[in-house]
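Exercise: predict the fold of this chain.
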Amino acid sequence: MDIAGATALVTGANRGIGAAFLDELVARGARKVYATARDPQTLEAARRRLGGAVIPLGLDVADERSIAAAAAAAPDVTLLVSNAGITALEPLASGEPATAQALMRTNALGPLDLMRAFAPRLIARGGGIVSILSVAALLPVASAPGYSASKAAAMMFAQGLRAELGPQGVAVTLVYPGFVDTSMSAAFPFPKTPPRQIAACALDGIAVGQANVFPDPFARLVEDAITTHGDRVLMDPHGLLADLVAGFLASQRRPAAVRRQD
């Protein structure tokens, strides 16, 4: 689909990857961008910086009534960017049940409700959906099992919608970032990719109808691993992810001249 002239809606647009989508969409000539967050006042700085193309809009993806209100307020959307999410570093066996429920509500069920709410308009206009997931949807993170599960569920929902909506002219692109330089990953001492790169790769993908986007170096390591080590994906996913992280960090510690030869 053509980003220039599109009317987009971005969830979680007040920071991180969502905020980067606002910059990238405006730079690519989007006609209108509904920038959404639970508190629309947090979007005013982006509106002043980017101009009249950006329209702040309140939206809590964990609230069905809020989703319905946003769908009514933004009837002309042709590109839906489902980005908002939460994380939690908490075990499953001894963790709070409310934490797992909140992760599923915000990261999986909320995006599903959002995509369903906008699907009729996207079908009518031949639009598209970008679903921001995580490599944790493919290989579980030991310190954040609930987050990994919620992203895996979101992936399955998005894949299901792609199968249903694709024949009706709606492109659905799934994006699997690795380590991104956002507040959500601030506690992890890894080399991180700028959010703008994630947004740019995602929009490049939806523009050409790409099904899956692995937008950063670590994400591409995961992509390669799941295609070449299917047995470990099923039998030892935590060990596989640990090996990938160790290898990635070792490669980043090499001198720059050596890395360029790889």
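Check your answer against the key: Residues 90 and 144 are 6 Å apart (CA to CA).
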